[in-house]
Amino acid sequence: MPFNRPIPDSHPRTKLSSGIETLVQAEKLMQIALLLPSSVFIGWLAGAWADNRFHQSWIGLAGIVFGGISGLVYVVRLVIASGGNSGSGNGTGKGSSTK
Fold first, then answer.
1. Helix, strand or coil for residue 65?
2. Nearest CA-CA partner of 82 in 21, 40, 37, 39
3. Distance separating alpha carbons of residues 63 and 57, to the nearest angstrom
4. pTM for this structure?
5. Domain segments of the chain: what residues?
6. How far apart are CA 20 and CA 35, in angstroms?
7. What are the mean pLDDT values of the chain's consecutive 10-residue runs (99 residues total)?
8. Please, how many CA atoms are within 13 Å of residue 94, restricted to the half-sphere of its CB?
9. Rounded to 5°, angle at Cα 27 from 11 and 19
10. How far apart are CA 28 and CA 85, in angstroms?
11. Residues 44, 59: contact at Cβ < 8 Å?
12. Could you tell me where the DSSP H helices lie in the chain?
């Protein structure tokens, strides 16, 4: 069987674009790393304010839990949105069989 050359890329990647893509990926990872603690902290602040306002003692804990859950939901949505860049095979999710 003769060797056929692959079709060349009409827009070859430059080193500058791959460097910028690396920085964008690093920014996404930093956003994930800062999002969870900040959402828990904001939930705690809102809960502490509501504790003082309504003279209760359980709302602060509810604010922490709500902030953690909302941050986790946002992180999962962010990971699913950028999941196309994983490069983990054929993308069928069923695995590959080797013989």
1. helix
2. 21
3. 11
4. 0.62
5. 27-82
6. 22
7. 73 69 87 92 96 94 96 90 59 50
8. 3
9. 35
10. 12
11. no
12. 15-54, 59-81
